[in-house]
């Protein structure tokens, strides 16, 4: 069968005869001892299938024994065992090999036919055209159907995606409302009534006693069109505040000159600033804060007007519409008004003139807010349990009133009896007095150049007290002439002046008093300055008086005078300075220099000519020098002859 | 708080208590005093129970004064005194078992209060169970707290409107350890009132006839 080619050796090796029983640690293999004859027989006997008929058994071995077999087994036991030669171990191998050989031969033949094409050739089989030909309409329809199925699937998927996306958005909006609600709840008090959510924006939990309910309602904003673009300031939550708290409000405190006509009262105060047109979709926290502010302003105003009506004062307070008018000082008017705008534009204006923007005392408005909050705190803290638990409610110090037998005066001094209105009027009075004092000092300082007036205001003030240190000096001689230093303590209604020399003077709120006082101090300063200058220049002070009783009477204060004499005694300078009459300087010359003195027979000795003689007035205005003290120095220098 | 002197003014002959009080008011107003509201002083008696037998029961007096509206004073006659909070009255209710309230013995003095510069004059009608028994006059000199310094001035002032009914120096001041120069206490005023109320209580038999 094999056509040429070298023969392939096929080597067959039997397996190891004996099985390895054990491999010891040093590599020595222990083989299973071979089966003995009887053991082998037993093994073979087990393979016999005794169920099969003995004919086939008998035929089988006879047939097989005729086959060309190289070595039949000599030791075969004929009696019991009918060994089937087809079951010999190499049979399957032989069959497989034979099959493989057949296949290889066939393959070889086919390939040689293909290659050589001498005897046989390959020819394609012609297909039946009628079987493969299908009408194009069917193709179209089938394609369409398949496409339609595919499209349907895709559409379904897309629809699902769309739905899930819309759900997500809706959920996000839903979640937005809840998160907004959570934020709202973290800042404001909310409670659920039925299916409505109500909130409280009043100060009642902080101690206020105002009877307004202050309830607002939380509503969900569902009027949003999902298709359109979401506006930037969209908020899923909106609040509805009570109608009387809409808009914005503030308390305006201002001090004006008293209006001459009482009929002017009653005009509603306008807004100084027009509030910006707020869009309807304002965020809730701005709305709530504005409403709370309106409520607080209403409470402040209600408290103030209640006190204005109840408390008896010397000049009654007038409460008109939304204004409270009182008179802190004669000629002055303090008006506290509640300005509330609801945001709608007003077509008509109540009064044509606009109030000046700097009229509004912001400090007092802030103080009003602070005072009412303090009042809230007080109402709360009085409910707080006192220590020890047996003590009565009230001020801590008052608990000592019983055991220490405080009388009514002491008790009333412990208890605060001042209301909000009184406090704010006192503060307004103080502010006004302080600003007027400042203005007085400033006008004086700008009007009068010699001497100079300096004011050092203290930074730390009380609501009812401020202080300023006023120094009167001459320019260039600050170190020498610093005897006039005044400390002004500005109170609610009075100004207390403490002089450097220890005098304490109380001035009233009149502007003129302070001005007159300062002018008199300035005139005294000039004379003091001469005294100090004399010390420096070596001149001797002969007499000095702060309040001379001679000469024309001054309408403001008193005139002061000083007389100084030169070191060698030859010349004397006499100065009289008054706030109104100005300064008068006279110089006394020695008799020898006076020309108009007649020679007298009485005084014959020449030494009498060295005495000082008549006085001569100095034309002070024509004197050279920047200020009084400089002029005085020059005069003194001129009258001191060089050695 | 100043030096006080409490005295009793006898009812004028042939006149009722009210008329005598009105006379005093008129005198004060002529002097130039200014009316400044009302005043009241009251005294309640409590009997100590559960005492050792043989000893007389101690009487505790709890007094109130409108000048010190938040205080209650408790004192024994001639003995120690205590100034306390207004809650003391509630405490006394709790001590009902130890101190029994003798309700019929409550004495009080009510009247008007006049101010004359540094002097405070209180003229009151002493009443026991709503029947007037006498007149009490309290003069307080607010500028001083040492009785020794101002007793002469007070005496002169009292003479100007009380005339012959001017009292002598109250015993509370002299009985103190430091004498006349110790500062006064509200207890001194209360002791004086207690003395006066005691006198009025003893007088009850006589005074009951001349009133109504």
TrEMBL record, chain A:
It holds the Pfam family Med17. It is found in: Nucleus. Keywords: Activator, Nucleus, Transcription, Transcription regulation. GO terms for biological process: regulation of transcription by RNA polymerase II. GO terms for cellular component: core mediator complex; mediator complex. Residues 51-83 are annotated as: Disordered. The keyword Nucleus applies. One of its GO terms (molecular function) is transcription coregulator activity. Residues 60-73 have a biased composition (Basic and acidic residues). PANTHER family: MEDIATOR OF RNA POLYMERASE II TRANSCRIPTION SUBUNIT 17. Belongs to the Mediator complex subunit 17 family. Component of the Mediator complex. Component of the Mediator complex, a coactivator involved in the regulated transcription of nearly all RNA polymerase II-dependent genes. Mediator functions as a bridge to convey information from gene-specific regulatory proteins to the basal RNA polymerase II transcription machinery. Mediator is recruited to promoters by direct interactions with regulatory proteins and serves as a scaffold for the assembly of a functional preinitiation complex with RNA polymerase II and the general transcription factors. This is Mediator of RNA polymerase II transcription subunit 17. It comes from Cyprinus carpio carpio. The lineage of its organism: Eukaryota, Metazoa, Chordata, Craniata, Vertebrata.
UniProtKB/TrEMBL annotation, chain B:
GO terms for biological process: regulation of transcription by RNA polymerase II. Keywords: Activator, Nucleus, Transcription, Transcription regulation. InterPro entries: Mediator_Med20. It is found in: Nucleus. Signal peptide: none annotated. Pfam families: Med20. One of its GO terms (molecular function) is transcription coactivator activity. The keyword Nucleus applies. One of its GO terms (cellular component) is mediator complex. Component of the Mediator complex. Component of the Mediator complex, a coactivator involved in the regulated transcription of nearly all RNA polymerase II-dependent genes. Mediator functions as a bridge to convey information from gene-specific regulatory proteins to the basal RNA polymerase II transcription machinery. Mediator is recruited to promoters by direct interactions with regulatory proteins and serves as a scaffold for the assembly of a functional preinitiation complex with RNA polymerase II and the general transcription factors. Belongs to the Mediator complex subunit 20 family. This is Mediator of RNA polymerase II transcription subunit 20. It comes from Cyprinus carpio carpio.
């Amino acid at each position: 069968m094999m056509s040429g080619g070298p023969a392939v050796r096929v080597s067959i090796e039997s397996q190891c005869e004996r099985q390895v029983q054990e491999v010891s640690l040093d590599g020595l293999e222990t083989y299973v001892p071979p089966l003995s004859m009887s053991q082998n027989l037993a093994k073979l006997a087990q393979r016999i299938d005794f169920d099969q008929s003995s004919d086939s058994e008998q035929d089988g071995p006879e047939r097989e024994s005729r086959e060309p077999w190289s070595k039949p087994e000599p030791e075969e036991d004929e009696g019991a065992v009918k060994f089937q030669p087809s079951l010999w171990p190499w049979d399957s191998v032989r069959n497989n090999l034979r099959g493989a050989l057949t296949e290889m031969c066939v393959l070889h033949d086919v390939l040689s036919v293909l290659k050589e094409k001498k005897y046989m050739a390959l020819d394609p089989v012609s297909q039946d055209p009628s079987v493969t030909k299908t009408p194009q309409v069917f193709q179209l329809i089938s394609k369409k159907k398949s496409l339609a199925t595919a499209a349907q699937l895709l559409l379904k998927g897309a629809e699902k995606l769309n739905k899930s996306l819309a759900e997500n958005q809706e959920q996000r909006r839903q979640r937005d409302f809840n998160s907004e609600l959570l934020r709202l709840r973290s800042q404001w008090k909310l409670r659920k009534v039925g299916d409505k959510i109500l909130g409280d924006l009043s100060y009642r939990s902080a101690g206020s006693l105002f009877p307004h309910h202050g309830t607002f309602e939380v509503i969900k904003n569902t009027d949003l069109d999902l298709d359109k673009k979401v506006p930037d300031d969209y908020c899923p939550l909106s609040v509805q505040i009570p109608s009387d708290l809409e808009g914005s409000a503030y308390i305006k405190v201002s001090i004006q000159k008293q209006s001459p006509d009482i009929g002017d009262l009653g005009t509603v105060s306008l807004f100084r600033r027009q509030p910006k047109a707020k869009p309807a979709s304002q965020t809730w926290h701005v709305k709530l804060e504005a409403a709370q502010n309106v409520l607080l302003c209403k409470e402040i105003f209600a408290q103030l007007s209640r006190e204005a009506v109840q408390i008896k004062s010397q000049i009654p307070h007038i409460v008109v519409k939304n204004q409270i008018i009182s008179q802190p000082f004669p000629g002055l008017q303090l008006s506290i008004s509640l300005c509330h705008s609801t945001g709608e534009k007003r077509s008509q204006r109540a009064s044509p003139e606009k109030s000046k923007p700097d009229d509004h005392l912001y400090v007092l408005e802030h103080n009003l807010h602070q005072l009412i909050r303090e009042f809230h705190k007080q109402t709360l803290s009085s409910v707080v349990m006192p220590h020890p638990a047996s003590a009565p409610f009230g001020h801590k110090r008052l608990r000592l009133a019983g055991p220490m037998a405080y009388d009514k005066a002491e008790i009333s001094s412990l208890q605060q009896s001042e209301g909000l209105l009184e406090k704010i009027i006192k503060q307004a009075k103080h502010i006004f007095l302080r600003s007027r004092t400042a203005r007085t000092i400033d006008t004086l300082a700008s009007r009068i150049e010699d001497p100079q007036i300096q004011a050092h205001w203290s930074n730390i003030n009380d609501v009812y007290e401020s202080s300023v240190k006023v120094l009167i000096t001459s320019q260039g001689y600050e170190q020498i002439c610093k005897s006039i230093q005044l400390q002004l303590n500005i109170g609610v209604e009075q100004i207390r002046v403490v002089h450097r020399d220890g005098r304490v003077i109380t001035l009233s709120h009149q502007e003129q008093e302070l001005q007159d006082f300062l002018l008199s101090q300035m005139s005294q300063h000039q004379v003091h300055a001469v005294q100090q200058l004399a010390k420096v220049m070596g001149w001797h002070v002969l007499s000095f008086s702060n309040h001379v009783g001679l000469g024309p009477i001054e309408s403001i204060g008193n005139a002061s005078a000083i007389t100084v004499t030169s070191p060698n005694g030859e010349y004397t300078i006499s100065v009289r300075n008054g706030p109104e009459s100005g300064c008068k300087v006279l110089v006394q010359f020695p008799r020898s220099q006076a020309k108009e003195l007649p020679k007298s027979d009485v005084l014959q000795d020449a030494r009498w000519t060295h005495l000082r003689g008549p006085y001569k007035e100095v034309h002070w205005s024509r004197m050279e020098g920047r200020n009084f003290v400089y002029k005085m120095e020059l005069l003194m220098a001129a009258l001191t002859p060089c050695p | 708080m100043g030096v006080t002197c409490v005295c009793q003014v006898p009812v004028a002959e042939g006149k009722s208590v009210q008329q005598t009080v009105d006379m005093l008011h008129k005198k004060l107003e002529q002097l130039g005093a200014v009316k400044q509201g009302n005043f009241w002083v009251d005294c309640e008696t409590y009997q100590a129970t559960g005492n050792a037998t043989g000893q007389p029961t101690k009487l505790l007096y709890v007094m109130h004064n409108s000048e010190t509206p938040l205080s209650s004073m408790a004192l024994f006659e001639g003995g120690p005194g205590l100034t306390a909070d207004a809650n003391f009255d509630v405490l006394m209710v709790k001590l009902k078992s130890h101190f029994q309230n003798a309700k019929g013995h409550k004495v009080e003095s009510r009247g008007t209060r006049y101010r004359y510069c540094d002097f405070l004059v209180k003229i009151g009608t002493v009443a026991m169970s709503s029947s007037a028994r006498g007149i009490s006059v309290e003069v307080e000199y607010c500028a001083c707290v040492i009785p020794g310094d101002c007793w002469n001035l007070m005496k002169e002032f009292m003479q100007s409107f009380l005339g012959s009914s001017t009292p002598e120096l109250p015993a509370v001041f002299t009985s103190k350890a430091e004498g006349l120069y110790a500062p006064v206490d509200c207890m001194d005023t209360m002791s004086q009132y207690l003395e006066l109320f005691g006198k009025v209580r003893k007088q009850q038999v006589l005074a009951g006839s001349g009133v109504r």
